[in-house]
Write a structure and sequence with these properties.
Blueprint: H1 16-29, H2 35-67, H3 84-93, H4 95-106, H5 109-125, H6 136-155, E1 160-161, H7 167-170, E2 177-178, H8 187-194, H9 207-215, H10 218-229, H11 234-241, H12 245-262, H13 276-288, H14 291-295, E3 298-305, E4 312-314, H15 316-327, E5 337-345, E6 348-356, E7 364-374, E8 377-384
Parallel strand pairs: 3-8
Antiparallel strand pairs: 1-2, 3-4, 5-6, 6-7, 7-8
Helix pairs in contact: 1-2, 2-3, 2-5, 4-5, 4-6, 4-8, 5-6, 6-10, 6-11, 10-11, 10-12, 11-12
Amino acid sequence: MAWTDAGSRPGGEVTVEDLIDDIGRGAAELTPGEPAALYAGVAELTASVDRLRRVARTARDAAADDNQGYGEPDAGPPELALPEAAFAALTETHRRAVLVLCYRMTGSYDDAEDLVRETFLRAWRARDTFRAGASVRTWLYRIATNACLDLLRRTARRPHDYEPLPAAVRGGGVPPARVTWLQPYPDDELLRAAAGDPVGPYSSLELPLLVALQHLPPRQRAALILRDVLGLSLGETAETLDLTPVSVDSALQRARPALRDLLPDGRTQEPAGAGAGLLTRYMAAAEASDPAALGALLADDVLLTAPPNPFWCRGRDAVLAFLQPSRDPASAAFPGHFRQLPARANGQPAAGSYLRRPGTNVHRAQSLDVLRVENGRIVEITSFEPHLFPAFGLPLRL
């Protein structure tokens, strides 16, 4: 393959043939033996098939784009001309890294996935601009960043505060920031995307940091992500944003203190794996509808939000009062019985909640609760709608 990428991870380049061979070997190794091993093998095979499906879709879109007259199959120098399938396999190598960049820029997993497809289509159209020997990943970062900026210009989304609610409903404190488009990001994707990337001061994907990023003007946000998270040089960042290095430096001088001011006071980043035991107790309390057990896990000033819904409440008593009717079988608002499955999102413990309504025998996906833990207590619960369960490896029904 003519394109090389000094920035790719070891063994990162793949071909369509590699993917097909991996799937063939995986299928051949499946045996109807021990159920857990069979399930793990099928799950791994499914992930490989999904990867090949994405490559095939990218190749199909590139071929369709050529047929619509946006580009010519042989555009660019001969050594850079790639068949659609080979180009698609190469870009798939960097899909997760590009996905995380787009997610940081937008705060939305759905938008990020759409932007990855847009990035690869733009890259196909602009393949003659790639310089031999340069980093494919950095080249894709530039295209993805500009796709994100285009989206942000079109949508003009801005965070705002939640509306005040009666104190009896929402507890104490001022309304928190409301980002209606906020969505969670699955940790298995995050860990694989982060492999080999620089670790900057804002490399975490914790929800408070993600919400704070959404407050920054788009170009300041992009400059900070490219420079302080992804480790691009000042010159590379300036080239990506079509700015001068002086302008980038000025944007960073404004973005860094603004971001620090937006982050919660006393915020600490828990080590990887923190909160696992607490998550187990949280799920047990939720399944047992035990308010006392749940209350013992919550910080005094715990915050509960449920994007994109307008409701919020702060404080242990307010959160328990809000949850109690939906957990009490004697309540007229009791919806049914809950089950929980563990997950991780944005570097934080999470629980997939399933509801079995009265008169039915199926638990259906209800919400994904992402927990922020500090000093052994839950300080924030962000409850998301369930349509992203498959991205977390969670079924939509039990």
